[in-house]
Amino acid sequence: MQYVGIETQQRTNNFRSVVLLVLFPCLVILLTYLFCFLLTMLTVRRYPGNPLPMETANVMFVNYAPVVLLGVLVWFFVAYFANTWIINNSTGAVPLERKDNKRVYNLVENLCMSRGMKMPKVNIIYDDSLNAYASGINESSYTVTLSKGIIEKLDDSELETVIAHELTHIRNRDVRVLIVSIVFVGLFSMLAQIAIRSLYYSSLGRSNRNGKGSALPILLIVIAVAAIGFFFASLMRFAISRNREFMADAGAAEMTKNPHALASALRKISNDPEIEAVTRNDVAQLFIEHPHTKSESYFSGLSGLFATHPPIKKRIEILEQF
User: Fold this and answer.
1) Do residues 182 and 58 both lie within one domain?
2) Considering its fold, how many domains does the chain have in total?
């Protein structure tokens, strides 16, 4: 398989990823209108003398939309610039010093020099399982993180291709795209959690005091809208992640001229990718293979729609065709 074919695939996947990211704010706008419409229908049922539902929903939407977009923007910037701390805290990653492992630093430096890349930071997860990921939004924060197991259990050629895979994510700005998608999905997750907690306390408090429970229908609407948003945003996020893994495999094969070494590394990784410290599913998509294979296999049963990674057997088959 010639790399020119992979370059065409990369351009196609980049275009698809841009389209998916543009859909996120559009989804927020649509769900804001859905919330306004459902809230209006609820009001009309209680107070039949109100104006027509569509007219009321339109007015409400015009008033709410700027506030919602401002809130989304604030959330985006806070989460976007705090992502390094969030990811490291979620994976248990800590800096790996050059004096602690010159072998890893030599492999990273040689690959970076071959592509004219700035040397990223190098982190380690003290876990005997085999996995790795790239993170960061700019040159000052780009990081390649390797597990203790993957460093010790892969030979030099295999480890080199894994590092090349992660460097390709950085070169292609994959990590930036994935972090943006994680931020938007996290928004809907946060809204749903807030609504559920508010619903719980409202049912214990206000509803029991006055017997009306006037806030409950509104909270139920918020939960429903947030759930819809989380569902569709997650589908977009999973599609972005799957596309990027194929591209990173191809980039690593081109960078090292050794696709079979990467195929061999993926086989070893697939036998033990479990990283115990990883508790967040959104962060899990950054890894070269999902760090919780049981969770991944459960969702991948629905035609792969909910899989953060393409099947590793398929990735190996493609690499062996080079």
Assistant:
1) yes
2) 2
> How far does CA 149 lie from the centroid of its chain?
24
Pick the last residue of a domain from 171, 194, 225. Answer: 171
Strand-pair category, 94-95 with 132-135: unpaired
For the whole model, what pTM was predicted? 0.75
Please check whether residues 49 and 123 belong to one and the same domain.
Answer: no
Domain range for 152 is 92-171
Which pLDDT score, from 0 to 100, does residue 279 have?
74
Please report, for the domain that includes residue 109, its CATH number: 3.30.2010.10
Give the model confidence (pLDDT) of 78-87 as tens digits. Answer: 777 788 888 8
Active-site annotation holds for 97: no
φ/ψ of residue 119, rounded to 5:
-65, 120
Q: Which of 166, 245, 289, 296 is catalytic?
A: 166
Residue matched to tokens 């895979």: 165
Closest CA to 282 of 182, 175, 192: 182
> So what's the pLDDT on residue 121?
96
What residues in the chain have per-residue pLDDT under 50? 1-6, 207-208, 211-213, 295-303
Query: By the 8 A CB rule, do 268 and 147 touch?
Result: no
> Do residue 126 and residue 138 come from a single domain?
yes
Same domain, 142 and 180: no
Instruction: Give the whole-angstrom CA distance, residue 170 versus residue 57.
Output: 44
Q: Longest C-alpha distance within the chain, in Å? A: 76
Q: Where are the beta strands (DSSP E) in the chain?
A: 94-95, 121-125, 132-135, 143-147
Q: Write the pLDDT tens digit of every residue in 168-221.
A: 998 888 887 777 777 777 777 666 666 666 656 655 555 445 544 456 677 677
